Amino acid sequence: MEAVRDIGTQTRLAAAGAPPAIADLDIDDELKELEEVSRDLEAFTLSANTRLAYDKAWRSFKTFCESYSLESLPAHPEVVRWYVAWMSTQVDDWGVPRFAVSTIRQHLAGIADRHLREWFLDPTRHRGVSDLVRGLEKLRATRPGRKRPLVLDAVVRIIATMRHDVYPAGISAARDTVALWLGFAGALRRGEAAGLRLDSLELHPTDGIHVRVGPSKADQANVLVDVVVLPFGSAPRTCAPCAVHRWVVLLKVSGIQDARERRRQNMRWLFDYQLDDHVCGADGRVGLISELDLASSAPLLRATYRNRREARIHEAGISGDALHSMLLRRMAEAGMDSAKYGFHSLRAGHVTQARRNGATTDEIMRAGRWQKADTVDVYDREFNPAARNSVMRLGL
Ligand SMILES: [Zn+2]
User: Fold this and answer.
1) pLDDT of residue 1
2) Which fold does the domain 152-383 belong to in CATH?
3) Under 8 Å CB-to-CB from 334, ≥6 apart: which residues?
4) In this predicted structure, what is the pLDDT of residue 12?
5) What's the gap in Å between 232 CA and the centre of ligand 1?
6) Ion ligand 1: residues, CB < 5 A
7) How far is the CA of 278 from the centre of ligand 1 (A)?
């Protein structure tokens, strides 16, 4: 960034649209001193808090520019537009925008301030920038904030609506059931679920299935690996491991080259679908799959192709966005209004259901892999107003 700071006076004035003649003047020491005095005075024109906010905004903008190799000073209005667009897409754990429109305006003020102090034209005044912020303001005013939680009953209802024991519909039903349990029981975000590989899973004799989230086993450098648990269900209809076993069997079948044989095997497994007994190895039975079937770095949740007659499972993984749309579609099929929901609703539903069933903040933080209790509190305030609330102890 030194190169930017060393930009010549001539260039700066040209950028500011000022007459170039002044640059030819030999500025003597006295004038330089006056320049410093004027800079000091400038510092008093803004309150200390505003100054801090502007500096913070400027550092954020500079980092953004550096990460895309864009010039930050002077910045082209188009670059500022990209920055506004970037800020508008940043969301926190709950899907809530990280930058409120007022914060975005403050960032723009910080960028403007730095440009004006350095004698550049203010790129934030460009019509394209102000229109974008106004548009965003309108959009935010109409869009709901947090995703509503989907609690256990809702998840079970969505899964029960799917057609599991028919071909070809049963193929995507098997995958989507696993995705739903990963989001609800595993409290995984959409990107985390989409990023899982077969060898992220480990069958456990008493716990159910352990799922390594984040960096793969091969990535030894990163020690911050989280493991979430998909426990055996009390009944097959709430058993996430059963869903995993059924899906991985279909993944194995998808590797069969002969189309007729593949179709025959797919039908066999789908027609066998039942909820009377576990197929996951719970209850001391033998599961459909073994640890050997998970010894692959292929994606767990795959894209599928389907027409009326047949379904294929692709080798490529499904995207997080596709998981999100899948959930909305499955909700609609189950006759539910999906307007305020998203894949994050499953993770939110985990927190809500766990709290209703008496889980402690510690337990929820562990399952959701949160570092701070504050994050869990946010959700209690929003969705569990009765949790840890003395009103429930009034004996009413
Ligand atoms: Zn099971």
Assistant:
1) 39
2) hpI Integrase; Chain A (1.10.443)
3) 157, 158, 160, 161
4) 54
5) 5
6) 239, 241-242, 278, 280, 282
7) 4
